[in-house]
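Researcher: Structure for this, please.
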Amino acid sequence: MADLPPDSATAPSGTHRIAHIALDEETILWRNADVEQERRVAIYDLIEENTFKPVRSAERGAKGPYRLHLGVRDGRLAMQISDEAEQELEMLLIGLARFRRPIREYFAICDSYYQAIRKATPAEIETIDMARRGIHNGAAELLMERLEGKVETDFATARRLFTLICVLHIKG
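Model: Predicted structure, token format:
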């Protein structure tokens, strides 16, 4: 799958950022319209604004922008980081065991949210959305913790990456 930036001409070049992101299609077994929309929005927002500095690559002189390919291999998040010429700079493997519960909770609250937006009161939707944001924020903090020393990133980028990690875990 090739997800391109909305307008790469407007993005600053040579900075520590993601300019292209793709998900391993073999990892994604199923997704509905709501999940597909979440994926599109996360990728669009991520490409528009992000901070992403792979520490080892930067120490070797890589400045980006980077191409990121996300997948799941043997229960670990595989983050293949390449330069604009698609030369692999490094492969990060992050254990996902600590993400099982946040992913499960995020799926459950998203299901509730999608049902609520179709038939609940605005107050009920707001309550569910606050819970959804709380789970999402906690998972983003966990991701930043797991990336410490490997990738320097900001909170907004970590939130969007967590959304994409969730997309990779949909089993149908």
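Researcher: Any notable elements?
Model: Strands lie at 18-23, 52-54, 66-73, 76-82, 88-95, 151-153. Residues 18-168 form one domain.
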